[in-house]
Amino acid sequence: MANKSKLVKFAELANMHNVFEKKPVLKGKWKTDFFKNSAPIIIELACGKGEYTIGLAKLFPEKNYIGVDIKGNRIWSATRIVNIENLQNVCFIRDQIDHLNEYFIQDEVDEIWITFSDPFPRDGDHKRRLTSKKFLEIYKQFLKKDGLIHLKTDSDLLYNYTKEVLAEFPSKILKDYTDVYAMNKNEELHNIQTYYEKMHLKNGLTIKYLCFQLL
Ligand SMILES: C[S@@+](CC[C@H](N)C(=O)[O-])C[C@H]1O[C@@H](n2cnc3c(N)ncnc32)[C@H](O)[C@@H]1O
Fold first, then answer.
1. What is the pLDDT of residues 85-111, one digit of tens each?
2. CB atoms within 10 A of CB 18
3. Which of 69, 129, 130 is the best mutation target for the ligand 1 pocket, counting ligand atoms within 8 Å of the beta carbon and taking the most?
4. Which of 102, 101, 38, 93 is nearest to 68 (CA)?
5. Dihedral sign, CA of 8, 11, 15, 20?
6. Which one from 33, 98, 107, 118 is the annotated catalytic residue?
7. Which terminus has fewer CB within 10 Å in the chain: N or C?
8. Do 140 and 175 meet the contact criterion of CB atoms below 8 Å apart?
9. Does the global pTM surpass 0.90?
């Protein structure tokens, strides 16, 4: 039941085989000990209720997906769907993204998705944005050398800020769309919409997308 109390949900989370709560026990061993294959690992940061992670996992069942968020309530909702649909190529980490270097070794992650993360509009908060230099340094510690980072956002502020950061950080922008839905159809970008994306589209906002590599 989706209306269980938070306490019940948190107790259930602690026993789920596909949720890792503040436990970096699989560092370097995600493929051998959890997914039991050698397929690429794609992580989604700030995954919320996991719509993007789950959408991608269904589109590409041959790849492995890990959603990351700090909010237990949201991770519970995401895992509920994964368990109902018996998806074997998905799991979740409940922790601060700031700690992700404790979960993965160098080159363990092939791609990173950042979908509709908070833009943190106040100037003093810019380090909390998931594309700040501080976070890019963390991702460099586990993302493959030619690995891709995808940013999908409604926020002009976050989109422009990310381009400014990348202009100063060794990196290469591969795709830069100012309006995703004005572009040619791309199933990864068009076919999956999170709760926040639907809300922003309803409010008439355009959705921006950057795909880049860290050099
Ligand atoms: C605006 S919601 C977006 C959720 C989802 N991507 C979507 O589109 O529906 C932002 C999410 O980022 C998570 N978040 C923000 N900063 C975080 C951090 N440093 N570590 C882990 N989660 C974080 C919040 O808990 C929240 O669920």
1. 999 999 999 999 999 999 999 999 999
2. 15
3. 69
4. 93
5. positive
6. 118
7. N
8. no
9. yes
